[in-house]
Description:
Blueprint: E1 4-7, E2 14-15, H1 17-29, H2 38-44, H3 49-57, H4 63-80, E3 85-86, H5 90-99, E4 103-111, H6 112-121, E5 131-134, H7 143-153, E6 162-166, H8 169-177, E7 181-185, H9 192-195, E8 202-203, H10 206-216
GO cellular component, one term: cytosol
Protein name: HAD family hydrolase
Keywords: Hydrolase
Amino acid sequence: MRTHIVWDWNGTLFHDMEAVLGASNAAFATIGVGPMTLQEYREQYEIPIPRFYQRLLGRTPSAEEWLRLDDAFHDRYRELSPSCGLTEGVRELLDGWREAGNSQSLLSMYEHDKLVPLVDTFGLSSGFLRVDGRSGPSGGQKAEHLTRHLAALGERVDPARTVLIGDAADDALAALGAGAHAVLYTGGSHTREKLEPVGVPVVDSLAEAVELAGRITG
């Protein structure tokens, strides 16, 4: 069976870290936390997101605070994200992987109804076996979503020959829990220092990630 890649979207294929930072700083302001630089954000960010906010506050956000944080983040992200584009070289990498006889799909924790039209605007949808975004509340982890994603792909993919490429430790944990492999990319939400302790390969470019995905399952 051919090798399959499950791609992450935000911070991986979609280079949106400036929008994420701006949206996060807007959210922080609702709870009295000052703005971060991009480096500070990447050093401190973690999933699940409520735990990230807990560290910043020194306590668990109340239900009301969580709603304010979530609303402020998504409102500002909607304003900033249209100026973001694909990570450099993405189109060529996706085309090359498919032309080599392999398959790929997209799984994101971005809301499904917003993800699908966004991927369409870049003309990428036809290159994926499946595009899935988050259903249900925001702020959770990817593991259960990946399990459903792989189940929906069915016999077209083998988890043992599947590699999830993402930018967060949570991506790797989800993949390992599903019996798949993972390669983590340093150009998104986490620094290399935050990614390496997970114990999966960490790379500085998506080209390296694709090359490694082919070797891992080859």
